Backbone:
């Protein structure tokens, strides 16, 4: 399945593909497009849209898209994912950086990678291990 979101990803638009590929759709193809084209591309490609205005999966009820996907796909039973979701929430939602001690650091890492790596697909590939590592850390926090 194809999944489409806005170009120039930072926190949520890297965390969500990590979640999608690890827990929802291992064969997922992630498409990054101009923000105003997300819904058009999703319709044309029969793709799931995420983390964009009016996307199928996006921020709702104060939750970031990563949290929404966890709920939508019934993944709340994994305590490590719930822990990671709090970190991602704090890094992604303006004003919530203090939700966890790790959130501000993740936000800094995401912004640094985004500034240093101009190719969105390469950015996704090199940032995936950050989420692997955070997930492993979260497993040990229980």
Residues:
């Amino acid at each position: 399945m194809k999944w489409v979101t806005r170009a120039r990803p930072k926190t949520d638009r890297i965390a969500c593909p990590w979640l999608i590929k690890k827990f929802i759709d291992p064969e997922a193809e992630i498409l990054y497009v101009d923000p105003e084209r997300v819904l058009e591309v999703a319709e044309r490609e029969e793709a799931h849209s995420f983390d964009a205005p009016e996307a199928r999966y996006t921020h709702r009820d104060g939750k970031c898209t990563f949290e929404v996907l966890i709920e939508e796909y019934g993944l709340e039973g994994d305590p490590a994912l719930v822990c990671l979701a709090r970190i991602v929430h704090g890094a992604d939602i303006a004003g919530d950086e203090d939700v966890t001690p790790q959130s501000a650091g993740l936000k800094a890492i995401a912004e640094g990678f985004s500034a240093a790596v101009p190719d969105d697909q390469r950015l996704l590939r090199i940032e995936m291990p950050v989420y692997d590592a955070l997930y492993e850390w979260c497993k040990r926090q229980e």
Summary: The chain has one domain: 2-139. Residues 120-139 form the longest helix (20 residues). The chain has a mean pLDDT of 97. The chain is about 55% helix and 10% strand.
